[in-house]
Amino acid sequence: MIRIAAAGDIHFDRNSQGKFKPHLENLNQKADLLLLAGDLTQTGHAEEANILAKELHNSPVPVFAVLGNHDFHTDQVPEVCKILESANVNVLENKTCVVEVQKSAVGIVGLKGFGGGFMGACGSDFGEKEMKAFIHHTKILAHGLHDSLLAMKTDYKIVLMHYSPIPGTLTGEKKEIYPFLGSYLFAEAIDAAGADIVFHGHAHRGIEKGVTPGGIPVRNVAQPVIRHIFNIYTLNKEGIVSHSSHSPQNSGPNVALNF
């Protein structure tokens, strides 16, 4: 059994000191891993990353993170990654990692993901070069996700991303912006290669629970959705996923909930 603390869209800015660290105390008694599903910062500035790194530096459990669209805004991605990695945060930007948990090998595939839309209302790599580049970028990421999952020989396979692979967890968002919230190509890759669970963020007005067409559980862990600092999920070898909430946002430090 693996216990996973997960959250996304924590949006750390220059005034976020103390908004996460207090909730990490004794986390190892509740969870084995902490997963952060992108939008770690508000504008992707190194100063914001420094504040978050100080919060996460002494985490009692391994921390794995992917970047979100906000983290790319000021074009400081290499510096942001370096700062977080110096605090022992495993930044999985199109990377994989294997960690041992309770004598089981847990593989985590991490990527930001991208948009494109979902079946019946999606873009295609046809027409203008800008549109071709948009969808081509998503296809490259989806192919990489598929290959990484397929190559992974672990007891558990977890996908950690920012954009959504399914429309189900976007319920509540305006359908007009679905193409900018995720792509069905990622769900196709996940179903074809296999995984035990997918975590994502990005959709602040979405819902928590969904499933890929192939039946793989998907959880939208954006803080505005889960309404807690993080949720704790339990995953066993039968593939059953349960969750318990931790630290309501209205008790203790507040958390920025900007899209």
Q: In words, what does this structure look like?
A:
- The longest helix has 23 residues, at 129-151.
- Helix 1 (46-56) packs parallel to helix 2 and helix 3 (129-151) runs parallel beside helix 4.
- This protein has helices spanning 46-56, 77-86, 129-151, 184-193, 223-226, and strands spanning 2-7, 33-37, 63-66, 89-91, 95-101, 104-111, 117-118, 121-122, 156-161, 197-200, 209-211, 217-220, 228-235, 241-248.
- The protein has 259 residues and is an alpha/beta fold.
- The chain is globular and about 50 Å long.
- It is built from 5 helices and 14 strands.
- It has a single domain, classed as Metallo-dependent phosphatases (Purple Acid Phosphatase, chain A, domain 2), CATH 3.60.21.10.
- The strands form 3 sheets. A 6-stranded mixed sheet has the order 4-3-2-1-13-14.
- The model is unreliable at 250-259 (pLDDT under 50).
